[in-house]
Amino acid sequence: STVIIGGPGDACDAVGSWTDATTCTLASDVADNVVIGRAGVTLDCDGHQITPPVKPPPAVGEVLVAQGAGILVSKLQDVRVRGCHVGRAGEGFGIGIWVYYAEAVEIADNVLVENVQGVVVQSSTGVSVRDNRIDASWVSGIAVQDLAAMTAENLPPPLPQIEVWGNTLSQGS
Q1: Could you point out which of 4, 71, 77, 104 has its C-alpha 20 to 30 Å from the C-alpha of 123?
Q2: Cα-trace Rg, the chain
Q3: Quick one: which H or E segment has residue 14?
C-alpha cells in the first residue's frame, strides 16, 4: 500500500527513520507510491529508489491512472523532497513527483527515470524545482500547469511563483 511520510498513518519508520523532528531519511528502496502526509516535512531519500508496486502492466491509455505518482505533495506547505531516484528503466510512474495545490515546496537533487511525466507542479506557488536529472520521460520532463486558476481572489499576494533551474533533461524529456 501507499507509504505515508508524516501525519496520520506515518510509515517513515517502516522505510527509514526520522533523523530529526521534520526529516524522514530512507534506509531502503520503496516499491510503492509515497505521499507526504503533513506540512513542514523533508523527505530525504538518501539515494534510494522509489519504483511502482508490482502489478500487471497497464493498457496504453491507462498509464497515468494505473501507475499514479511516485511522490505526491498535495495541499501542504513547507515540504522538501531531495535525493530520490524515482522510477527506473522499464518501471516508471505516471508522474514522478507531483506537487498539487501546495506552497513553499522544494524539489531538488532527484533523479527521475522513465516516468510519463517527470515533475508536475500544478496550481501551486513558491515552488522550486532545481538540480534534478530527468531521463526518458514520455510526455514531459517538467510541467508547470494551471497557474491561470490561481488568482488574487484565492491566494494572498504574491501571485504564483515557480522557479525551475539547474535541471538536466535528456532523451526527449
Answers
A1: 4
A2: 15
A3: helix 12-15
For 110, the 3-state DSSP assignment is coil
Q: What is the pLDDT of residue 91?
A: 85
Cα atoms in the Cβ-side hemisphere of radius 13 Å centred on 5? 34
Place of cell 536529472: 133
If DSSP codes are grouped into helix, strand and coil, which group holds residue 13? helix
Which residue, 108, 113, 46, is CA-closest to 86? 113
Run of H or E residues at 67: helix 63-67
Strand partners of residue 36: 5
Compute the distance between CA of residue 102 and CA of residue 126 in angstroms, rounded to an integer.
8
pLDDT of residue 64: 45
